[in-house]
């Protein structure tokens, strides 16, 4: 237990430090090589890597829609229902995010507009691994679908049999995703960034992944011939603020929810109550033993931090500095503290709002800025699947009204042709009047 | 004049190719070194570089507010009026972009919110050079001010006398920018990304610049200890679609407005009228001679392209592939083509809407995606100075309704602790009911 008020400035910084991310030259070089191979050899390179890492017998990247449909049908009914419930909530919440176009007359005869339009082609990456992640399919596929992206391409690594989990297939079909490709890792990101014979080049790539995927996303986002990406990535994290009234079992379960994601997950409890902190520490020990992924969670909890502050306001100040991906506020009248919260990806208010609600089914998106990026990046939302552009239309009256100011400014900036573009028009109008 | 319909696929691609951007290892290394120096030595390093490149006598980075005020007062009255007119229009249009928070009940007892909040500290970069750029101060400063960013930091290189142009000072004061630092180039970007004794670390850096500035922005945006940036940058460009009714002088002036920005600027005319194209080519020659920056504009116009299409629709298809930063549509009933326009940073409709209107004063932002990024990046707007985050609050009813689905999904994904975080709450509720 760390007593915040006794720390020096440097100790405070240390207490909230995140683990350094590996800046591995060999990872960069490996990924760069994979990108170059895929760019040069297209499908052949992607298939070769997929055979090497995922499925030795793979010969075609595309999962047929027929097979996608068959797989989707195999999902157990209760899981289907649960995915459908999550889908409904995520869809409602993202539909509510639809932006309105703006049209405004700034000066008589001068109309300005801001318009929103869906990105044309988006790439959705779903990691493989020991368990399927249908929830991530929903978190990417629903906003892409609601935005109205013309093409939605999903890449996910196949299993040894060249197939994907039925839950992934079911969620993909709910989101109207009908292009599923059997590839993962940096090669999948390369395929979606550059395009291959099978996989369309995409405008933007979304989704979580391992260090190869993350590095590949960074690299393609830096290239003009690549693709935009959703946001930078880092280890996942939760910060819980709790007071004396909090239920220690609830808090412990929330910390462990985060911890089981991976050994580098960060779990932080900040509380003005030392008795609550002690109770949570005991509850964590008790619950840890019951988890199937307890080796992962235990490893992450070695780096958990329990910070004792003087007040709840101090705890919020700590959170604002840390800028957590998930912030759970289990204090009396939690909502009253919302205006004071500055930097967080997603906020969970009150005792009955576990992180797993947002991870799965409340309706909010679970793709969130990690690693302190909550101070300058947004949680994923509908707007990330759209583009804004502007339109202006000046009438003769408009250019007459605004032209002189434009010419003065162009002259001040030494840009003759900018001035001339107005002058030729004002001259033409003057001639019209003379006639 | 290129006749579009006679081109092969590869020739079409070639006709719309942008100049390759230098991927210079020495530029990267130089910038990387400057970033490291500023990160290690703070103000001392920034002052040293500024003495070397801009002002040998500089000893302090901060331009005092008193001096800022004095400089602002020196602006000629007609320029003050013109800047004020532009400011008013830009402010109106960006105020109209204020987003509304969202609050929604997705399932009884489950409330989800999307909230918008201003970025805390933003860094605005204004290039130096032969002429001052007060318009760019407005395009960055107005949205930062309208968004409500707590701190707005402006960096611009000083002249030989350690001062800045009075027009910059005047525009900065209109935008309520009260922290102006006398530094430019990669060292200014480093100062705003990492912070120094004088310059606060910023959350996001905005603004155009030379190749050092662009490279520095890219590098700091890739670092977790750096800052986010507005968008990737490339040479500026315009594509004009014009028909037989268009005024060749207007079109020529618009092409030249773009061309005078720099020798790498791109100017493209696409038209179904060969007579219009010929007339524009002649008008360009005539107008070129009158420009003070004619050597720059002439160099850019060497790479100008004149593309003849069969129809206006074909011209729009060409534009959609090219994805221009600025798209000027000088055809009869220009607005009717707006729904067909897919990828453009800002659209100028009709004969009376020159690019310079948007560059200066219509109200739209002149910071726009270049180099084809209009297909996946937005034009700069108020939302770029804000963050979205989500909030969820479940009541007892909410967790009772949604908990079973969350548990099913957590189980399907093999995440016990996520399931447990719901189970402990449902158990607690069951016990409450039993009592």
UniProtKB/TrEMBL annotation, chains A, B:
Catalytic-site annotation from UniProt:
325 (proton acceptor), 326 (proton acceptor)
Q: Which residues bind NAD(+)?
A: 125, 187, 210
Cofactor(s) required, per the database record: Zn(2+)
An example GO biological process term is: L-histidine biosynthetic process
User: Which is a Gene Ontology cellular component entry for this protein?
Assistant: cytosol
* Binding of Zn(2+), residues: 258, 261, 359, 418
In this chain, substrate is annotated as bound at 236, 258, 261, 326, 359, 413, 418
Cofactor note, please? Binds 1 zinc ion per subunit.
Catalysed reactions listed for this entry = L-histidinol + 2 NAD(+) + H2O = L-histidine + 2 NADH + 3 H(+)
* Keywords in alphabetical order: Amino-acid biosynthesis, Histidine biosynthesis, Metal-binding, NAD, Oxidoreductase, Zinc
Query: Which EC number applies?
Result: 1.1.1.23
Q: Which family does it belong to?
A: Belongs to the histidinol dehydrogenase family.
Question: What does this protein do, in the record's words?
Answer: Catalyzes the sequential NAD-dependent oxidations of L-histidinol to L-histidinaldehyde and then to L-histidine.
Q: What is this protein called?
A: Histidinol dehydrogenase
Q: Which organism's genome codes for this protein? A: Alteromonas pelagimontana
Q: What gene is it encoded by?
A: hisD
């Amino acid at each position: 237990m760390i007593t915040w008020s006794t720390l020096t400035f440097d100790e405070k910084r240390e207490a909230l430090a995140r683990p350094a991310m590996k800046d591995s030259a060999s990872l960069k070089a490996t990924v760069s090589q994979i990108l170059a191979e895929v760019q040069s050899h297209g499908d052949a390179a992607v298939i070769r890597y997929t055979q090497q890492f995922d499925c030795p017998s793979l010969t075609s990247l595309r999962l047929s829609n027929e097979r996608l449909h068959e797989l989707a049908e195999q999902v157990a009914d209760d899981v289907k229902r649960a995915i459908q419930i999550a889908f409904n909530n995520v869809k409602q919440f993202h539909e509510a995010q639809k932006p309105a176009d703006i049209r405004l007359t700034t000066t008589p005869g001068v109309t300005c507009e801001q318009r929103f339009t869906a990105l044309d082609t988006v790439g959705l990456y779903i990691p493989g691994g020991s368990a399927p992640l249908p929830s991530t399919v929903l978190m990417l596929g629903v906003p892409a679908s609601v935005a109205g992206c013309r093409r939605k391409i999903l890449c996910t690594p196949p299993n040894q049999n060249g197939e994907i989990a039925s839950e992934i297939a079911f969620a993909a079909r709910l989101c109207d995703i009908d292009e599923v490709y059997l590839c993962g890792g940096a090669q999948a990101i390369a395929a979606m960034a550059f395009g291959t014979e099978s996989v369309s080049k995409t405008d933007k790539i979304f989704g979580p992944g391992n260090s190869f995927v993350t590095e590949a996303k960074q690299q393609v986002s830096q290239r003009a011939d690549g693709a935009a990406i959703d946001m930078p990535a880092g280890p996942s994290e939760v910060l819980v603020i709790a007071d004396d009234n909090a239920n220690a079992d609830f808090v412990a379960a929330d910390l462990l929810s985060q911890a089981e994601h991976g050994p580098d997950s960060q779990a932080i409890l900040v509380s003005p109550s030392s008795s609550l902190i002690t109770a949570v520490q005991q509850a964590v020990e008790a619950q840890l033993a019951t988890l199937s992924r307890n080796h992962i969670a235990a490893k992450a909890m070695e780096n958990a931090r329990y910070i004792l502050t003087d007040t709840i306001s101090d705890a919020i100040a700590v959170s604002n500095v840390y800028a957590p991906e998930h912030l759970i506020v289990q204090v009396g009248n939690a909502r009253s503290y919302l205006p004071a919260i500055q930097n967080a990806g997603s906020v969970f208010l009150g005792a009955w709002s576990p992180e797993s609600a947002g991870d799965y089914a409340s309706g909010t998106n679970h793709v969130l800025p990690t690693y302190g990026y909550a101070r300058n990046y947004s949680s994923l939302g509908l707007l990330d699947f759209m583009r804004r552009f502007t339109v202006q239309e000046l009438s003769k009256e408009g250019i007459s009204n605004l032209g002189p100011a434009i010419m003065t400014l162009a002259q001040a900036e030494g840009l003759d042709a900018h001035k001339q573009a107005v002058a030729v028009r004002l001259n033409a109008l003057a001639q019209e009047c003379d006639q």
